[in-house]
Amino acid sequence: MKVSSKGEYALRALLVLGEHHGRVISIQEISDKTLVTVSYLEQILLKLKKLGYLESKRGTNGGYILKRETRDINIGEVIRVLEGPLSPMGCASITKYEPCQLEPSCQLKPLWSLVRDTIAYVLDQATLEDLLENRLTLNKGDDFLAFKRTN
């Protein structure tokens, strides 16, 4: 899985809007805070609006506002709708499965499936509120790194 600039910038924009939850923020202000051009941001914000994350307001005091509570915006969902499957390889994808030449004896598929499941687990546990509150940390376990939400 590779997050494109579209996914990265969408999360940046959501963070800006989340920091000012309940307030309409102009596209220029979002651009200034995210360092994303207004023209590219327009495309991203329109997509987020169509997906039900944002509302837009027209006029001199126009801009964008979150349509959902920050705790109800799941990062895994946002990434999937903008970027597609989380799997690093098609043979491990659940939604866009593509067989490889070595199947069914491929010894790498379990690794790619584990990577997919780990990415999905972390992203699906995270909300916009968690990011805003800086509550996501990696906690080293006995045998592997485990995701932990701190308070």
Q: Low-confidence runs (pLDDT<50, min 5 residues)?
A: none
Widest sheet, order of strands: 1-2
Chain-averaged pLDDT: 85
SSE ordering: HHHEEHHHEE
- Write down how many β-strands occur, each being a DSSP E stretch of 2 or more residues: 4
What level of helicity do the residues show?
A: 40-55%
Q: Any idea what the radius of gyration is?
A: 18 Å
Sum up the overall morphology in one term: elongated
What is the makeup of the main sheet? 2 strands, antiparallel
Class derived from helix and strand content:
alpha+beta
What share of the residues does DSSP label as strand, in percent?
5-15%
The termini sit apart by: 29 Å
Pfam families: Rrf2 (PF02082)
Protein name: RrF2 family transcriptional regulator
Keywords: DNA-binding
InterPro entries: TR_Rrf2-type_CS, Tscrpt_reg_Rrf2, WH-like_DNA-bd_sf, WH_DNA-bd_sf
Summarize the structure in short:
The chain contains six helices and four strands.
Key traits:
single chain; 151 residues; alpha+beta; Arc Repressor Mutant, subunit A; two-stranded antiparallel sheet; 44% helix
